[in-house]
Amino acid sequence: MAEMMIESPDEVVAYLKAQHNLIEDMFDEVLLASDPEAREKPFATLRQLLAAHETAEEMLVHPRVRREAHHGHAIVDARLKEEHDAKQLLSQIEKLDITSQDFIEELTKLREAVLEHAEHEEIDEFPYLEGELDVAELKRLATAVRAAEAIAPTHPHPGVESAKLNFALGPVASLLDRARDLIRKVIG
C-alpha cells in the first residue's frame, strides 16, 4: 500500500475523513480517465485502498462504537450492511472488462454507495469518537488503524465484515491477495 501513502493526520477521525476525500478523488480519477486502458492502475489502487480502509474500520472503529455509543449496535449493523453490499459490488466489478460501459456504470453505482456510506460514518460514528475519546486515545486509534491497513487484504472479501473474522481471516486473505496481485503483475 506504499503508493497510497498520504500525509495523514495523527488522530483517527481526521485520518479517516482524509481517506474518504482521497477515495472520492480516486473514484473520479478512474471514471474520468481519458483512455479506458488508463483506468487499470488507478482502479487497482482504489480497490486496495477501499479494502484496507474498510478492514481497519471493521476491526477497530466499528467495535468501539458498537460497545460504547448510544444505539451503537444499530449504527454499526447498518454500516456493516453497507460495507457488505459494497464489497459484493466491488467483487463483481473486478470481473468486468475495465474498458466496458458496464464497468463505468457499476463503478458509478459503487461510488455513490461508498460516498453515502462515508457520509453515514461521518454523521453517525465519528462524532461519538470525537466526543468520547481524548486526543491521546484518538491518536492511538489512528496508529492502530494504519497498522491494520498495512496488513489488510487488497481485494474485497464479502462476508468478512466483523472484527473477529477480520482478525482471524484477514492475514491469510491478505497474503493470498498479495500473491495473486504479484502473479497478475508478472503474467500481465
Q: Profile the largest sheet.
A: none
Task: Specify the oligomeric state.
Answer: single chain
Q: Report the structural category.
A: mainly alpha
Ends apart, CA distance between termini: 20 Å
Mean pLDDT: 86
| Helix content class | over 70%
Tell me the total number of β-strands: 0
Looking at the structure, what is the overall shape?
A: globular
Rg value: 16 Å
The topology string of helices and strands comes to HHHHHH
- Beta-strand percent range: under 5%
Uncertain regions spanning at least 5 consecutive residues: 1-6
Number of H- or I-type helical stretches: 6
Describe this entry's structure for a reader:
The structure is a single chain. This protein has helices at residues 12-31, 40-68, 72-94, 101-132, 135-150, 163-187. With 188 residues, the protein is mainly alpha-helical. The two termini are 20 Å apart. Mean pLDDT is 86; it is low at 1-6.
List the helices and strands and how they pair.
Blueprint: H1 12-31, H2 40-68, H3 72-94, H4 101-132, H5 135-150, H6 163-187
Helix pairs in contact: 1-2, 1-4, 1-5, 2-3, 2-5, 2-6, 3-4
Highlighted features:
188 residues; 6 helices
Q: What's a concise summary of this model?
A:
77% of the residues lie in helices and 0% in strands.
